[in-house]
Amino acid sequence: xxxxxxESSVRSYEQIAHANGFTYFDAGSEGxxxxxxxxxxLAPKVNKEFLxxxxxEGKDFVLTSNPSKAFDAWHFEHKGESFYKEMIFLQNNGYxxxxxxxFWRVYK
Length: 108
Known about the structure:
Strands 1-3-2 form a three-stranded antiparallel sheet, with no helix packed on it. A hairpin with a 2-residue loop joins strand 2 (96-100) and strand 3 (103-107). The protein has one domain (13-107). The protein is of the alpha+beta class. The chain has helices at residues 13-20, 28-38, 42-56, 70-77, 81-92, and strands spanning 61-63, 96-100, 103-107. The longest helix has 15 residues, at 42-56. It is built from five helices and three strands.
């Protein structure tokens, strides 16, 4: 599962993923901060490697947020850089997006 991180919120992607038994990556607030201290590009590298591994395993993805709004959220609101980059990466790797109930499905 992919989506926006919302600190201390049940609407945050990792909380929804955990509650529904989906695969997700979360280093926790302290983990992300620690990675940023070591190398400003470490967190994006780790995040991308998670996606690569999931793609190699042939997994589809479920999104908590509308992927078509990711561009505007990042470029105009400065929210969700990671989510935006994840959407671009998946699109560049041949994935398609469709509405899936209250979520979005990303599949090949």
